[in-house]
Design a protein that fits this description.
By secondary structure, the protein is an alpha/beta fold. The protein has a single domain (about 15-300), classed as 3-Layer(aba) Sandwich (Rossmann fold), CATH 3.40.50. It has helices at about 30-45, 65-75, 90-105, 115-120, 165-170, 180-195, 210-215, 255-265, 275-285; strands at about 15-20, 50-55, 85, 105-110, 140-145, 150-155, 160, 170-175, 195-200, 225-230, 230, 300. A hairpin with a 3-residue loop joins strand 6 and strand 7 (about 160). Helix 1 packs across helix 8, helix 1 crosses helix 9 and helix 6 (about 180-195) crosses helix 7 (about 210-215). The protein is globular. InterPro entries: Glu-Q_tRNA(Asp)_Synthase, Glu/Gln-tRNA-synth, Glu/Gln-tRNA-synth_Ib_cat-dom, GluQ/Sye, Rossmann-like_a/b/a_fold. It comes from Pleionea mediterranea.
Length: about 300
């Protein structure tokens, strides 16, 4: 760990936060915690809260999930500002970003398979960087990593730094199947939406250095990143749609919202349990304490 890392963004920017779920199923308790944390943090700082649907991976998407997610947020009174952005509508923007990086000779085509990378210990060793493969429709595209340490300061998790292997690993911004990678899309979207603070789960800590690298290459100030603890099951597995985490139910919104505030260390008073979601959120905004959020990567629920 670096004892004196730089904060990931200056604090004098207008606050614009966001919640960006993938439509791979209904929202679960872990999703609710992330939505509540990002919403309340934005409103406690007199900011705006945007919603973005990250629908870049059609094979994993569930029909109707995007609409269900929005209806669930409304049932919990988590009302967003402005229009909902869908990543599936933004392919031209992502392609333009790739062309910009290509003109600067910061990317290259990669033909390595997942099997080959697993055989090299699970870390891509930048073997295609010097091969000068052309960027074709069936090749992955990787960004050249920097030699500088990618440490950053997280207000919740503290000083963080990638392992040396990950620091050197050139990462993918377009997959071999032609789909744009999460790292590229999320940075382009955060730039275009003026996002100044990202509150999200600790499972995305590993993505932060890569996104900071892209902000650097695009010559744009990155947002501040705050990573909250993950909600995990008794086996220590993250609650997710893939492991069949139960969906949150609008009919139990008050109870689940109260539980989310407790999970985030905000200690809502017991009498708040019988209040409406609007009243509960008003209390949370008025009493929000970032410092109370548990400084641990995961919490068993």
């Amino acid at each position: 760990m670096n004892s004196n890392p730089q904060p990931s963004a200056p604090s004098n920017l207008p606050y614009i936060g966001r919640f960006a779920p993938s439509p791979t199923g209904r929202l679960h308790f872990g999703s609710l915690v992330a939505a509540v944390a990002s919403f309340v943090d934005a409103k406690a700082h007199q900011g705006r809260w945007l919603v973005r649907i990250e629908d870049l991976d059609p094979p994993r998407e569930v029909p109707g999930a995007a609409s269900d997610i929005l209806h669930t947020l409304e049932a919990f009174k988590l009302h967003w500002d402005g229009d909902v952005i869908y990543q599936s509508d933004r392919s031209a923007r992502y392609q333009s970003a790739i062309q910009q990086l290509q003109q600067q000779q910061l990317i290259y085509g990669c033909r390595c398979t997942r099997k080959q990378i697993r055989q090299s210990g699970g870390v891509y060793l930048n073997v295609c960087r010097d091969q000068q493969w052309p960027i074709t429709n069936d090749s992955a595209i990787r960004v050249k990593q920097s030699d500088h340490p990618s440490d950053f300061a997280d207000p919740i998790m503290g000083a963080l730094q990638e392992s040396p292997d990950k620091q050197r690993e050139d990462f993918i911004i377009r997959r071999r199947d032609g789909l744009f990678a999460y790292q590229l899309a999320v940075v382009c979207d955060d730039i275009d939406q003026g996002i100044s603070c990202v509150v999200r789960g600790a499972d995305l800590l590993d993505s932060t250095p890569k996104q900071l690298r892209l902000f650097q290459l695009f010559n744009h100030t990155p947002p501040e990143y705050q990573h909250i603890p993950l909600a995990v099951n008794q086996n220590g597995d993250k609650l997710s749609k893939q492991n069949y985490a139960p969906a949150i139910l609008p009919g139990q919104a008050q109870d689940q919202l109260f539980q989310a505030l407790c999970f985030l260390g905000q200690k809502p008073p017991a009498e708040l349990k019988t209040d409406s979601c609007e009243q509960m959120l008003r209390w949370a905004i008025d009493h929000w304490q970032r410092s109370a959020i548990p400084k641990t990567p995961a919490i068993n629920v």
